[in-house]
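Operator note (shift B, R.M.): manual run for Glutamine synthetase family protein requested after the automated queue skipped it. Running by hand, logging everything below so the morning shift can see what happened. Input copied straight from the record, untouched. If output looks odd, do not overwrite the archive copy; leave it for review.
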Amino acid sequence: MKDLESWLKERQITEVECLVSDITGIARGKIAPVSKFVAEKGMRLPESVLLQTVTGDYVEDDIYYSLLDPADIDMICKPDLSAAYPVPWALEPTAQVIHDCFDKQGNPIELSCRNQLKKVLALYEARGWKPVVAPEMEFYLTKRCEDPDLPLQPPIGRSGRQETGRQSFSIDAANEFDPLFEDMYDWCEAQGLDIDTLIHEEGTAQMEINFRHGDPLVLADQVFLFKRTMREAALKHDVAATFMAKPVTNEPGSAMHIHQSVLDAATGQSVFSNDDGTMSELFLHHIGGLQRYIPEALPLMAPNVNSFRRFLPDTSAPVNVEWGEENRTCGLRVPDSTPHNRRVENRLPGADANAYLAIAASLLCGYIGMIRGINPTAPVQGRAFERRNMRLPFTLEHALERMEHCAELEEFLGGKFLRGYVAVKRVENENFKQVISSWEREFLLLSV
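Run finished. Output pasted below as returned.
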């Protein structure tokens, strides 16, 4: 705590945002004066925070009381000294500090998403392996809209005009929002977020930010904070930034592609390549694990009803767990690289996924393949979109059913977490089904 105290004093911080991520990826916590934060060296939050839905509701009572203490007790949230960042958009000098969740005996809380990623990384560490990831975050800029029944529209750029049509990789189209992105880059630099390139993606006013490769926990923290940063920069310029998986009808969805590789922790060499530069058995087994278990772990990568709209036909997203070299029609793409940088890109997670859980799930699937020697299918040559034998669940309901019956996920993530996660997503799905859509009003109201 002493180093963090010095860090706060050097920056003349007056307030501290104490953060944890809930299952959905929403930042929950408390805002404290710096003196109170330093004195208490953490915070207490109700355990129930970790079982809130995106609407703020809770799971059914029988599940709630089977997973949590019926007295609704507090958990102990301790600051991670390596996860302290300034809040550059705040009016007063403010810091945000990510916390880890423990029970009163000092045990990690199983329902904590960050703890789940740490658990998966410990599996790799026990084998002498060091995973490396590089996320790519897609998102849309839109006009601000107060009425959720109205479709989203592209924002007005510097030219005074809305973007029309698709402008993949257009420099001029991205430059329409230069002032916004200058603030975003400045704020990311102030926080030490290791972002790399900015790309205009396929959709109208759809963008992508790539992160440099690094430690999975650090990158998950950075994605968690980047979403906050991007939204704040957009609001400053009177537009909105959304990480919904499919926010706009007839436009491509937004993904969080995860590039992942594994190094030998002792030597720093890739375990995905043999000495002669060819693909290693561990690499092929890693892909085999991804193919076998992604369909079971899909709700951790596609967590919402809206996530599955991204997987509809003709949406440009792969709806399979095929793999191929330099093949973007596969859910698992192996980019062209040197043997040391050999990696697989998991193209299935949506931008709406909780980064801690999506990265944990992706690495866990590959890990199980490595330790159990799961062989992959033959790599795909040509288009994989039309292939039917490696398809994913088409609905959240089906995906949740598969997830809750997966013995391997329960073994490695824990039954408590699995039951809690599925319960939260089922409540959200039931809430969604209570809403009457504009399609139903348009086509059924006066016709049936």
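Quick read of the result: Residues 142 and 153 are 6 Å apart (CA to CA). The radius of gyration is 22 Å.
Leaving this for review. - R.M.
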